[in-house]
Design a protein that fits this description.
alpha/beta, TIM Barrel
Length: 303
């Protein structure tokens, strides 16, 4: 079991398999890593690293990018991964209709799909590409393939899509006839990485208060202490990472970047551990070292 100096157990691993993407979203933070290193982690390294983390107690794996589906060997990579409790993927959804069934067949459990609006003009402004229909097609394909539950990641941008939440909720209801298969995640904008994003930051607690009043059930997730509100035919979750010591106090994630470095915290780039080419005991030692330098970004009254 991997436990950092603050008593936080690492159970979730996120591996970025590429920096490449077919969109250019204005808020993209590349998993918090802006390295100029052109090296792309190999499939062999991905399997080696994931296997090491699993042996050390990590239970869940999420494949990320960039856009992971632009990698031609993505299905092969998933097929070769060790069997975690759950293997999921975060994708922009534009290529998902091409891969959903193959990914399900080789062991992918579910997907998170980035979808900030159902308005075509807003979507193109946010992502830089007119591909909204492809994303919708991808969500339907993921549903049909059984990559469930699907989580729709909606980053709120002030003055752009802060009034679009209800429409996304209505969109999810069609998938939730007998049980909750599609969950909307409303995500607070991380504006640390680009000064130009400051003007788009929106306090999503205003939206959360509205939905919290009539929920049939409230689930406080262990990871990040985030709340999920359950209704008859939809569920909505709020992710608030900014200035939130409670978020950091319950963080159980660790990342591996697309250029093969362990990244202990999303919001820091001064403590990355290079694991390129490492195997066996050397890789294990590097993982322990990364866990031991891990610390909450927002400490406040918790530490």
């Amino acid at each position: 079991m991997l436990v950092d100096r603050y008593g936080r157990v690492i159970t979730n691993l996120r591996v970025s398999i590429t920096k490449k993407c077919n969109l250019n979203c204005i808020y993209c933070h590349q998993e918090g890593c802006y390295s100029k290193d052109d090296y792309e982690i190999s499939s062999t390294e991905i399997i080696e690293i994931c296997s090491a983390f699993k042996k050390m107690g990590v239970r869940k794996l999420k494949i990320t990018g960039g856009e992971p589906l632009v990698r031609k060997d993505v299905v092969e990579i998933v097929s070769l991964l060790p069997r975690f409790d759950e293997i999921s993927m975060t994708t922009n959804g534009t290529l998902l209709s091409n891969f959903a069934f193959d990914l399900k067949e080789v062991g992918l459990a579910r997907v998170n799909v980035s979808l900030d609006t159902l308005d075509e003009k807003k979507y193109e402004f946010i992502t830089g590409a007119p591909k909204l229909k492809k994303v919708i097609d991808g969500i339907y394909a993921a549903f049909d393939a059984g990559l469930l539950p699907i989580k729709i990641n909606m980053v709120i941008l002030k003055g752009i899509n802060d009034n679009d939440v209800e429409r996304l909720v209505e969109f999810t209801k069609q998938f939730n006839k007998s049980k909750i298969n599609v969950i909307l995640q409303v995500i607070e904008l991380l504006d640390f990485f680009k000064p130009s994003l400051k003007k788009y930051h929106f306090d999503i607690s205003k939206i959360e208060r509205k939905f919290s009043k009539n929920a049939k059930k409230v689930i406080t997730r262990k990871m990040h202490k985030r709340k999920q509100y359950i209704f008859d035919n939809f569920a909505i979750e709020f992710v608030r990472p900014v200035n939130n010591s409670e978020f950091c106090s319950a963080c159980n994630r660790i990342r591996v970047t697309a250029d093969a470095k362990i990244k202990p915290c999303l919001l820091r780039n001064d403590n990355l551990i290079n694991i390129r080419g490492l195997k066996g005991d050397e890789l294990k030692k590097a993982i322990f070292r990364a866990v031991m330098i891990r610390e909450p970004f927002f400490k406040n009254n918790y530490y």
